[in-house]
Every structure is written in C-alpha cells, then in structure tokens.
Amino acid sequence: MTRSKTRNSQRVIRYANRARKISRDALLSDLCKGMYEAYKKNNNRLPYGHLNNLLKEVQPDNEWMTRNMLNKAFIKYRSQQPTCDDLPIVVGVKKSDSLLSELSNVSSNAAKSTKGIGRPIGTTEEKKKKDENTLISVKNEISQKYAALKGKAARKGTRVKPGTLKDVIKTVKSIRGVTADISPDAIRRRIHRKKLTSHHVAGGQVTPLMRIEPVVVEIILQMARIRQCLCPSKGLELVNSLIKGTPLQEELVQWKSRNTPNDTGTVGVGYWRNFLKRHKTSIVSKRGQKYELNRQNWTTYANFVNMYTHTMSEMVDAGVAIKLDKPVWMDRLGNICSEEEAFGCKVFYKLVRPDMCLCGDEVGGNLSMKGDGHIGGKKLLTARGKVPQKRASTRNRKFTLIGLTAFTGEPAMCILIIEGKNPKGNIEAGIDISVTPVGDNKNTNFIFNNSGPGKYYPGGPECTYNGKKVPAFIRWHESASITTHILVEALQTLDSYNIFNRTNRVKPFLILDGHKSRLELPFLQYINTPKDHWVVCIGVPYGTAPWQVGDSKEQNGSFKIAMTKSKQEL
Questions:
Q1: Quick one: pLDDT at residue 129?
Q2: Where on the phi/psi map is residue 203: left (φ > 0), alpha (ψ -120 to 50), or beta?
C-alpha cells in the first residue's frame, strides 16, 4: 500500500513539473512574441528600457523569471523567425506550387550563405585610431598653414584678414574628409605657444620613448607567437633595458626634469599603463591559458612549411635573397639547369648575398674517452679469445663547440664553451705538447714569444672572413652549454670587427635551431637594436631533434672523428 502511494506521488510530481514547464514556456513564448513585434517596429532593435519595463510587470507574479532567462528566450525566438530580406521578387508565376518551391529554394540558399553580421573583432578600435591620427594630422596642417599666412602678413607689416582661420579650417577639412569640429581658439593657442604640431588629440606632453614603442610592441608580439609571453613587469623591464646607456635615456632624464618631480632614467607603472592604452589595438594584458608541452604537437608538417615560408620571406626583406618570377630547377652550385641535372625541388628564391648569411649548431664534446666510438671500424690485433685493450682518459671535461659558417661555406667564427666556473688562461691558450717552448718560463716575454699558431700556446682556431681575422670566441659555463648571454656576446664580437657592411641596406642574416637560448629576452633585445640589427630566423620550437641547421656530417660529424683521433694520439 505504501509503495503504491509513493508511485502515485511521483507521478503527480512529474505531472506537476511538466505542467509548470509548459506554462513557463507558453508565458516566455508570448512575451517573446510581443518583444519581437517591438523589435521589428524599432528598426530591428529593442526599444530602450523595454526589457526592464517588461520584467517589472511580470516578475511579481513569476519570481522564477530573470533578465538573463528572458533575454536568452528572445534570442532563440528571434533566430527561429523567417527572414525575407534576401528573397527576390517573383513576378508572373501562376501556380502556387511553383512559387512555394522557388521561395523554399531561395530561402535555403540564403540560409547557407548567411555570414556574421557586424565588423570583425578589433576593426572598431582600429577605425577609431585611424580617425584620431587623421584628426591630429589635420590640426597640425591647419596650424602650419595659418602660421605661414600670419608670418607672410607680418613681413609685409599687415595682419591677416578676419575669417582667414575659419577659411583655412574649412578648406583643409574638406580636402581631408574630416567632419569633426576644430576650434579656432585651439589653433590660436598653438601659435601663441609656438608649438604647431602635436602627437595626440588631447595635447599635453609626449614621452620621448614614443620612437621605440613600435619595436617594443613587435618584440612582445614575437614572444607571444612562440609561446614565450612576457608578463607586464618583464615588459617594463624590456623598455628600460632598451634605453639603458643610450642617448634616448639622457633625453628621457631631461624630459622628466622639466615635466615631472623626478629625473630618473627609467620608466614605471604610470608609463606602462599609458603604453597599453596607446597600443590597445595590438596588445592586451590578460590571464594566460596553459598548453601541453608536447614535442609531437610542434613537429608537424604544417609548422615546418610555415617555418620555411617565413624564413625565405625574412631573407628577402634582409636583402640577401630575391623571389623569382617563376620557379626554376637548380643544380648543387645554384645554377639554373634542366630537370635532369637538378638537385632537389624547384626553387622559388635565389640567394644573392650568401656572404651576409650565417648558420651554426652546437656539437658537444668531452675529454673523457669512455664514450668514444671506433674510427672507421678500426680493428686491433690480440690473442684469440682476448679483447683488445686501449688506454683511455676518464677525466671529464665537457665543452660545446659552435662553428658559425657562412652560406659561402667559409668559417666565420669558432665559439668554444668550456665547462667550469672560473676562466683559466692556460686552458684557453691551449698547450701543444709536441712543440718545445722557447726561452725560460720565468721570463716576462715567455707567453708572448710562445703564443700563436704552431707554437707552444697555439690558441683556438682563428677564422679569416671578409678580410677580417676573427679569433676564437671562448667562454666558460658550469654545464658547458650555450646561453642567451653568450650568444649575444658572440654577435657583439662580430659587430666589433665590422664583419658585415650594413651601409647598402643589406642586413646580416642568421638562422638557428629552436633552442631555448634563442627565445630569451637579452638575445631578442640585441638583434632588434637599430644600430646592430640582425635578421634572425629560428626553427620550430622544441623541434631540434628532427631539424637542426648546420648539423651535417661534413661539419659536426668530421669534427667528432677528428677529436677522437686527436685524443687517441695524445
């Protein structure tokens, strides 16, 4: 008996819920119908306050209804209504069936071709910024023209005619297509202050760092593209580091001493806040979204195609390559040939300045001989059943070697990074035990007389490139690995020797793999410095295993074989 009562009560509850839902849907449908009529009468917009007034009437008897619920119901109701805006006018159709079929076909095709309504995201702010810049230039032009007319009249000892300024404003606005109001008093104040131009609409002071802000924005965007986003504090640090020790910092100090209570050579939170406002169409500050660091997600065909496409585009912009009108076949030497004599696929670009292009890759090494392989399968003689034994040094001393090589095939610089905390001059100079030193080691000129190629202290390999001798670049690191600071110092050394001539607008080009040292701030700052600008292309991040530039058997492979031979000889 109790069980039957329970079942009956459950049925009643379900029926009551169903009836309540039906009544709610009916009420919402009736309200949406009235809202839609008001929507159509008001040129496809709900009248102002219509929704609030409706809720005031309905909510006292229906507490469950909310503004969000009614708004969603109206959007759904509106999307289900047929639209006849795109239907053509059908004339001369006699049969109603034919007319209905035509209308149904047109409406279905119109529904398929419906696109999103409104401007694309971001274009509204871009339009505002463009209009603002136009208004600034118009005001500057009016000020300059009126000042020129006043100066011309003053030289003649007369004054400009009354209404001249209004005529100038009207003429310039008509030519430039500007409809905004421009006050004549604002122009007169500019001439009185002898400041005819301004960089922003509201007037006031303009930071001298405005000139480098496009570079800062570009660095921030590049870091975001490679998923190495900067936080606001790092962005501010970037700005201060770009101006440190430059004439722009001195200009900033003078500007702050005139316009602010302090005269420090750095900028702070206030500047950063205004910087974000000035470039709100390009960058925003928002919470990040985590992504999975999966190598397979990066090493895709699409990413590598994108890498090669951008690399060739940057080479053209740097002036070291040109794009051909049509693809051609080329041989190994870069000469145009037939398909039978060609090497590889058709070529879309031609390298015109290989002497301005560098590439390089790390190759690791260790003085320990434990992990050395056999050179060319070399065999040793021993008694049957015995294993040949060789003497081997087991002392660990790791190092990393990078050979910066030009696209001409010539070596440009040898970078050697030795494991250790403190630099040691005798290790950097090297010792050739096959050479007998000259003189007494207590003599003050001993090191000088015994340093150089073929001597007791031979030093690192010296490269001669573009007529300049470049000594080996040696640095020390705890793990003997490349860092962003070492990479910056290597490029600074090349620039100090004036290896590359930048006067003909051709910039040096460097291509590296996607190691993390290439993605850090100091390196990105240096290569974007206007004075020593480098065009650097980086491979797919986290894709160093399948793709490494300069890691060839002719270069890195030959070095490892030669290193093993030298250790065995010693």
A1: 77
A2: left
